[in-house]
Structure formats: C-alpha cells, structure tokens
Amino acid sequence: MEACTRGGAPAWTKPNHEIIADLALTATGAGIWSLDLGTLDVTWTTGVAEALGLPVEDEHSIRDRLLELLEPLTVAARNCPVWHNFDLEQCHETPHGDTRWTRFLARAQDNGDGDIERLVGIATDVTERHGNEQALADLADRYRLLVELSPDGICVHEGGRLVYVNPAAARFVAAELADDLIGKPITDFVDPFAVPDMLKRIEELEGPGATTTPTEVELKRLDGETMLIESVSVRTTWQGRPAYQVIMRDITAQKSAEAALHYQAALVSHVSDAIIATTAEGVVTSWNPAAETVYGHSSRSAIGRPVGEVVGSRLDPAAVLADGGVVEDTHRRADGSRLAIRVSAAKMNGGYVLVCADETARRQAERRYSTVVAALDEGVVVIGADGFVESANPAAGRILGLPLHAVIGCSPTLFPLYDESGQRIDPADYPSALSRRTGEPAGTRVVRAQRPDGRCVWLSMSCRPLDGSPTTPAAVVTSFTDITERRAIGERLEHDATHDPLTGLANRTLVLQRLASALREGSRGGMACVLFIDLDKFKVINDSLGHNIGDKVLRIAGQRLQHSVRRSDLVGRLGGDEFAVVTFEVRHDGEIRSLIEHLRRSLTEPITVDGRRLRIDASIGIVTAGPGDGRSAEDLIRDADVAMYQAKTRGRGRDEFFDVELRERIQRQLRLEQDLREAIRGGQLWVAYQPVVDLRTYRTVAVEGLLRWDHPVHGSISPGEFIPLAEESDLINLIGGHMLRTATRELANRRGPGKIDTRLTVNLSARQLDDEKLVDAVAEALRATGLPPEELCLEITESALMREPKAAAEVLTALRGLGVRLAIDDFGTGYSSLAQLWKLPLDTLKIDRSFVAGLDEPGETDAEAIIKGIVTMAHAMGLTVIAEGTENARQVEILRDLGCDQAQGFHFGRPSRAADLFPSEH
C-alpha cells in the first residue's frame, strides 16, 4: 500500500489492515487515511486526494483539508471508547470552485494501554449521491406543489385510513383543514352501499401504478350533503407500504349542464301543453306528444295540415300575435268534444310556435272552487279596485254578523278594526287598503273587529291582490279566521306560563322580564329596587301542619304583599317561600324603609288558617339599581338573594341592603367551600394539638386535636371561617373523618413504652352526630391505627346534644360501646338540665371559656360561684371537669382552688403540630 510522506520520510507505513477491511465493507472507491490524535500527524493514500478533488502532488493542501474536515472526528474521538466507529459526511469546495461531498468512515485505535492514540479510516467521494438526492427532492417538491395546487381532490389511504389529503379534497368534503381528515376511514366518505364495489375495484389493482377505470360515485361530505365526483384509484406506496391514491374530479357542474340539455330536449316532448310549430302560412311543421294527447290527432296526421283544421277552430298565428300574443279560445278534439284552450304565440325561424294550454280542467276546477269557498269556515271577501266588496262567502257574513246581501257593495270601513294594543287602526292602514294601494300582499295580522251588533271578534287576517296585474289600485281578496276562542285560550296559557299557579302572582320568568324591561328603558329620575323576601320558620309550619296549611299561608302572604304595594309595583313568587317585590322610580332609601316597614307590618299580622292562629315574619334582602347600572335582571335578583341570606344569618325578621363587600364576602365563602373539597386531596388540612393539663400535677394528660387549613393562595384560613362552611355543606363529615383518622394515627405512632401516654380528644359536630356511619368510622379509625379505645375522647357541644337529646343519647351509647370516652364541650351555653345530662353516658365536662374569662373581671365572685356549682354538680355525677381558655396563672390558681380537675389554654400551650409538641424519638 502506498503511503504519502512529509519531508521525505514515511508518515505511516503499516496501517491496521483489519480496521481498514472492516471499514471498507461499507465504501467503494475509497482512499485510506490515518490521524495521530496527539501530534495531529496525518497520512493518506492517493485515493484520498481523488476523494477530496485535490492534486495528488499537493500534499500541503491535502493535509490542511483533511485536518479541517476531520476536526469533528478528533473532538468526538477523545470522548468515546476504543474501537468506536465514526461516520461523517462533509461538504467543501475544490480548487476549481466545485462543490464536493466526502464521506469519512473511521475507527478509534488505542496505544495498548487503553488510551486512544489515533483514528484510522477511509474517505469516499459521495457527491454524485447527494446530487441525485437533491434532484429527487426537487422532483418531489414539484410533484407536491402539483398535488397541493391541483383543482382535483387527491388523497392517499393505507389500510383503509387516510394518510394524506390535499386542499381540494378537503374542500370537497367540507373540512376546514386537510389535517382534520388524517386517520379517518376512507369509507366514512363513501355511501355504505357503494363500499363493496369500491373495495372490489381496488383489490383488482395488482401492482404499483395499476389504476381503476373512472367511476362516478357520491362523495359524502361532513356537512351531511353529497357531491358527485369521478374517481380513479391508483396502486402506490406510502412510506414503503402498499397504499392507494384516489384522484377525484368534481363533475357536479358537468352533470348539471348535461341535465339541462336533457331537460331542454325533453321539455317539448314531455310538457303537458301542446306545442305546435307552423310555417308563416300556418301549416303544421311540428306536433309534440302533448298535442297528440290534447287534440287526439297523431303527429303523422297533423303535420302538413293547416293548424286551424287540426285544432277545430279558426286559429291564425299572426292574428294571435297581433292581439297581444295570448288569447282564450274554444277548440275541438278529434272526437268532436269541446276544449277550453289558452293560446300563446311567438315567431320562430320564419314561422310561429304555438303553446296551447288545455284549461278545460281548470275551468271546471274554478267552478268547483267556488263551491269549496262557499263551504269554508274561513271568511273570504273580494274587494274591487274601487274599494267596495264585490263578493263574500257565507262564512264571512257569519263572522261579521251581517247577511251576504248586506256585505256585498259595502265598504270595509263599516267594520272598525283595532290592533292588539287596543288602538283603533286608521282605515288607510287596513290590510285591504294597503294591498289595493301597493299591489303587494299584506301579511297575516291579528286584529279585533267590531261588528254592527256591537260584539267584538278577534280575526287572523291576510290580504293579497286578486290577480297578478301590476296596476293599482288593485282588486284584492281578504281572508280571515275567527280566533276569538283560540286567543282567549292563548291568553290563559300565557298567563299560566308567567304566573305562579298557587298564588296567582308573577313567577320568576315574569319578574325577570319586567325587571329587564325596566332596566332597558331606564327609570325617570329614580331607581329600581328589588326586595327578596323569605318567610321565616315557614318550614316548621309546612312540616308540622302539612302542605295544605302551608299552601294557604303562602296564598295569604302573597295577597298581603300584593295589597301593600302600588299598582305600578310587581309582586312575584320565586319559588317555595321566597317572594320578590320590584318597585320602580324610587327616589331615596327612606322610601324603601317605609315600604319594608309597611310590608313587615302586613306580614306579621296573625294568620288564622283552619282554626289555627299562626304568625310569620320575613328576612328581606334589598338591592337598588340607578341609571347606568350595568347589572342584568338576573344579577339584581342574585344580589338581593345574597342580601337576604345575610339578613337571615343575623337572625329572623331582619333586612339587609346589598353592597359589593357583601357579594365579595359571599363569593369568598363559595370559593372557599369549593377549595375545601380539594383541601384533603391536596394535603392542605393538618391537625394541631393543644395540651390538656392536670391541675394537681401540672402534667399533660391529654391533647385536643384541632383542624387547621393552609390554603395555597390565601394562606392560613381560620377555623372560625371554614368550619361553619363545612357545617352548612356536606363537607363536615368528610373533613371530620379525615381529622379523626389523622389524629388517631399520629398519636398512635407516638405511643408505646418510653413514649407519650397522653389521651387524644377530638371534636364532633352536630352534623356528624346525624351521620349514621359515625360509629363505624370511629371503630375503623381505632382498628386501622391501633389506638386503644379508652385513649380516645370524643367531645360534643352542649348545644348539639340538646338539639335532639334522644337521638344524641343513642349515638353516644353506641360510641361508648366501642370503649371510647365522651365529653360535653362548651358547657353552660346550651341550657341543658341535670336530668338530661344524667341520662347521657359522659365521662368529662368542659366548662365554656366565657366563664373562665370572667375570673379576670372585677368582682368575679359570680363567675367563681358558677364554676364552683358546675364542678360540684359534675363531680356528683362522676365526671371529670376541664376548664377551657385558661390564659394566665391567676385563672389557674382560682380553678385549682375551686376543685377543677384539668385545664387547657394558651397558658399551658398553643395548638402546635405533632412534631413540635411531642418529643422526637431517639
């Protein structure tokens, strides 16, 4: 093998033949090169110079070019393992300015110590391949443009699904984008009955390039329409896999043109009128099939004869044309029977064409029509161009209350007409007057007509010119139907649709309509005001006395509201025990206050129903909207409802004006309620623990678990805010169960020999007591965590126990059966009796913090006496007494002297996380 030299000495004389043999398997016409990675000495054979397009004798240029082109490989080789293969293609220019592509195949070679010493490889000229690839790419681009811009639809389907669709094909199927069709079955766009034929045609395509014969098919579009196309399928390949290209040509216009030609050609043959062509002298030259039917003469017998002789009348085409081109005449059939014919004539090709319309049947129909009109229940009156009645059918006389002879010849103004608002219509605007004056139909209009006998009838009336004459005034035909009874039914239905069936007041729909209308029209200098009224304690009446009594109370309340407002105000029932009063043109808040007081006095008057004397009151939300207020009627009702809800939360029989802060507060509550549903899943809820201390030993004997919420946006949310939200919704059982499981698990994990031995106290809400799954949930929490039942104390507020004492006792008994301890919380606020407490299976009594706070007030003897009495009573019942809210040493000392057993509060420790409160494990 020849080696190139530098300075007369061989630079490389012994290449690794095994490496070169391996690399040469992938290249032909190649030169061999070697590069020392340490010294960057490079050697090559003459084939390398040929591959680079450089003179063999120009060693300096060959070396520089090799080092320049091999630089990426030298960088990569230093970071790759030994014997790694490299493949690189580089573009460069020869000294003659030609562009050349050279491919370098190389392998890294070590020095025997595992370090890479050199690269050995071959160089191959691949310029021609790159040229071929570019030519193919240019050809593909030209083909793509032809396909993309083709007016014919072109698509490709593989395995029955579309893989390519050009813009024209997308337009054919009414798709917005061609990409929207990719992946859809091709059969989605073919009529199901045509699919077998389509599959059969493409199955016959044996190899690439094979095509089907052009076939007319109905293309199904995405908008439900169809399109007639001519389709050709071609066997092709797509990404190396068999596929089919479909070329579609829109032939709708072509078919329409062909149809038009066929229609024109068939018109003469299939038209029902006789079409006869004659010479200028009136000799028949053409006689269509309809003429054979009308006159009974065959084409053979008619052609060549004078037209008058064939039609049985003196028919002169020139005279018809001179008479205006249309005449009415009587002709005779071959059998001698009479025909009523309307003849139209026109010049054509030096002769005439006659259209003879057989109107014999029409004339007979007109006679029958007159009979039908006379039998109609709908009134029909013909008014002449002079404005007087020319004819009328019997129904018209019956509806208008006059005999026919009295109707004919009279003016329509004999009957005063009124519109639906009750305004009298000017005679010049009567439908008949408008049609006579304009020559145009007057659409259907509902009017009220006053008959000569004084009775009024509602008519659905329409009017149109009697004929197509463009002259005015025109004769017109007026038709009308008596809709008096139907309108009365409609008014009743409309009333029912907009009024409450129980009270007869406006329903929500009508309230919103009237309010929206007032907001659009604007108030004359005042405000619109909405009062949202909710009856207090109505549910108690309804549940205890029955719905019949409740309905009567609602009707009486509605009547009282109706009688307490102005006639221009609107009273409505929105549903249940909710009413609305909408008043307009309110000048100031004093008027609203006066109205509220008047309404409340009316509502609070005693109600006597079925011998029972009842009293009701109402919570009222008020919202006002002045000029320029952007709120809708729905917005005002919603805001008034929000204000009513706020009034109800403040107590019964109150009212509240809406303001933006109130809406924001309610919206925050709604948002927090939604966020609370995700809080458990998001790990936002956690349990804090507050110590409970024995007042004799000052040792922590228990901890009370308190739920906390770290909101990702609002930060820490007060329990005083989110617990009531949970109580009012269905979330309290969910988060209460989460807290019970978390607290029992965290405490159980910290119990055991040498660890904490404190009990756990957890609060239960009134809603949780009502949950039939509560006992099972507590049992499952104890089982899952392993916490001993006697180490868990469940606290229930005194007010919750007194709400349903019997039911609460049953639940507490079931919980006691699990072995857990029970405590009554906030004692002294729920007005419970000793007799009631005696029946409950309690272990602990917690004195409400309000009594403990009273120990700091001057003259605290009353607070001490109360606490002493509670302690004495509890101890007599065998209950442990805990004082809540201890804040200082003085309170602790007094409580201890009064015999209180335990206490908790900030003096002993604030609620903390389990990890902060309990000592770490060692």
Describe this structure in words.
By secondary structure, the chain is α+β, with helices and mostly antiparallel strands. It is built from 33 helices and 39 strands. It has an 8-stranded mixed barrel with strand order 31-32-34-35-36-37-38-39, surrounded by 4 helices. A 6-stranded antiparallel β-sheet has the order 19-18-23-22-21-20, sandwiched between helices. Helix 18 runs antiparallel to helix 19 and helix 24 runs parallel beside helix 26. The longest helix has 22 residues.
Q: What spatial order of strands do you see in the largest sheet?
A: 31-32-34-35-36-37-38-39
Largest sheet: 8 strands, mixed, barrel
In round numbers, the mean pLDDT is 85
Low-pLDDT stretches are: 1-15, 21-28
Q: Please report the total strand number as a whole number.
A: 39
Portion of residues within helices: 25-40%
Q: Structural class of the secondary elements? A: alpha+beta
Secondary structure tally, helices = 33
What's the alpha carbon Rg, rounded to whole Å?
A: 51 Å
Quaternary: single chain
Report, as a whole number of angstroms, the end-to-end distance: 78 Å
Q: What is the general shape? A: flat
Query: Into which percentage range does the β-strand content fall?
Result: 25-35%
